Amino acid sequence: MEKLSNPSKTREIIEKYGFDFRKRFGQNFLVDARVLERIIEAAQITKEDLVIEIGPGIGTLTQYLAEAAAKVVSIEIDRNLIPILGETLAEYDNVTVINQDVLKADLNEIIREYGRFSGEGADAGREASSCSEEEGAREPSARGTEDSGRETPALRPVRIVANLPYYITTPILMGLFEKHIPAKSITVMVQKEVADRMQAQAGTKDYGSLSLAVQYYSRPHVEVEVPPRSFMPRPKVSSSVISLDIYETPPVKVENEELFHNIIRAAFSQRRKTLVNSLGNAAFLPVTKEQTAAALKALGLPETVRGEVLTLEQFAELANLLGRAH
Ligand code: SAM
Description:
Layout: H1 7-17, E1 29-30, H2 33-43, E2 50-54, H3 60-68, E3 71-76, H4 82-88, E4 95-99, H5 107-114, H6 133-136, E5 158-163, H7 169-178, E6 185-191, H8 192-198, H9 209-217, E7 218-226, E8 231-232, E9 239-246, H10 257-269, H11 275-281, H12 289-298, H13 312-324
Parallel strand pairs: 2-3, 2-5, 3-4, 5-6
Antiparallel strand pairs: 1-8, 6-9, 7-9
Helix pairs in contact: 7-9, 10-11, 10-13, 11-12
The structure holds S-adenosylmethionine.
S-adenosylmethionine (SAM) binds at residues 25-30, 54-57, 60-61, 75-78, 101-103, 163, 165, 168.
């Protein structure tokens, strides 16, 4: 089939199925071959890789992913798109579409199921997943290897690639991080301002809890800026493709991740307040103002300091000191 990156092909498919774009699902489909090629290049996909795609839409990026990767699993919430994907991806036998909300999907389980080097037929038996009709019709195959007592097979390198639905960019990324999805990299199209926040440094206006979470788990770098005309329909905002190279070990030592994240959350939920006040006032944090003041002193920081100037390393040290204060 002719590639969907050609706008007239996308239009033809949309009209053939009478598809209505749904704003609430953030549906802006890519129609720019050069941008699609840049995404594939940035993601550094190899023929060894399992790619998880979030929100395939009508399959525009998926076509490119299927050509570059060993296996692609695409998770799409909108069931109206499933029959369309059946047609647009018909010639790729290495793609599985799962009709599910990605925020509810168990990605670790999906990776175990589809990431096996030997597991080309691992589509078996995903009763709950409402795969495309073609996928659902497959016979059960190599399930239960672990149950039978054999060693867990090695898994393919995992890369997450997506033109994300912008309304849930942060929850999707935070979910990937917090569940420790074993991906080598995440390459995503996001709103330009969000990409700027991800790589912002301490003391700048864009710096916040997203910057700290992203930089704790990964090394972010913006690949390319993308104008509204590269999408159908055109969004009101500019976009950026950003790659996050996931660290095997975070760059700073954190003794209690939950406390670390909660301290950051509290620090930026009241951005203009001093850290002593914002942490002391947060009901979900078991720390007093006196403990925060003492920890800041130990770090050589003034008692009046605000969270927005602390580096990742200083937040890690603060969390470790406060964690030990109990
Ligand atoms: N990948 C396609 C492309 O580049 O043309 C479509 C990208 S579009 C910006 C976002 C896609 O994510 C849409 O297909 C939308 O239906 C889907 N989506 C929105 N919310 C989702 C969710 N919670 N889980 C899975 N997919 C979702």
